[in-house]
Amino acid sequence: MRGKFITIEGTEGVGKTTNIKFIQDWMDSKKLTYGCTREPGGTPLAEQVRELLLAPREESVCNTAELLMVFAARAQHLNQVIEPMLGEGAWVLCDRFTDATYAYQGAGRHMRDDLIRDLELMVQGSLQPDLTLILDIPVQIGLARASERSTPDRFEQEQVAFFERVRNRYLQIAQDNPQRCVVIDASLTLEGVQAQITQTLETFWETV
Ligand code: TMP
């Protein structure tokens, strides 16, 4: 049987890293074979594209170049990692996927959805995640958390209004895809957040 494809999304500082570890523990408890990966990245080549995308630079990056780099990395990642694993029956847990492109390049950068849709079809055909957890938190709280961690990358240098558009688009995606997406209130305590995640995963498990 084909594996399940689970993605995790959210704006900066929502706590993806901590909660991905928690989801891995849940997968271990179910004795699943799985791989944990991320976008942009997940293969040596795609990780190089990630570095190019995230590095702050003086040259302004044109939106089309940014969009094509995101999908170039995704094509490689799908071909080398995600598709082979799912085909072998393993589950794949991915830190961000194409919802991030609609949120960051679509809403954040004001790129046209139909252009993104064309690239999505070219790169992934009909492949979609089976379950997407969208960690949601007010933008200012997330940015404050993220700024404590490290020097900001090229995306983290964006203004609050950019992240408000990203957040709103994620919430819209969740509304438009209720069968696939679950919004997790990430402003609660860690226990509160993880209780929501457990419930979501157990509900999904019943459908597998
Ligand atoms: P993160 O994995 O540490 O959150 O960093 C990845 C950054 O890349 C994040 O700021 C969002 C951005 N990104 C896009 O702009 N478009 C995409 O399609 C993906 C997957 C990520």
TrEMBL record:
The keyword Ribosomal protein is assigned to this record: no
Pfam families for the chain: Thymidylate_kin (PF02223)
GO cellular component terms listed in the entry, alphabetical order: cytosol
Binding site for ATP: 10-17
Coiled coil: none
EC number(s) on file: 2.7.4.9
Biological process according to GO: dTDP biosynthetic process; dTTP biosynthetic process; dUDP biosynthetic process
Record keyword ATP-binding present: yes
Catalytic activity: dTMP + ATP = dTDP + ADP
Job of this protein: Phosphorylation of dTMP to form dTDP in both de novo and salvage pathways of dTTP synthesis.
Residue span(s) of domain Thymidylate kinase-like: 8-197
Family the UniProt entry places it in: Belongs to the thymidylate kinase family.
Keywords from the UniProt entry: ATP-binding, Kinase, Nucleotide biosynthesis, Nucleotide-binding, Transferase
Gene field: tmk
Name of the protein in its database record: Thymidylate kinase
InterPro entries, sorted: P-loop_NTPase, Thymidylate_kin-like_dom, Thymidylate_kinase
Enzyme superclass (EC): transferase
GO MF annotation list: ATP binding; dTMP kinase activity
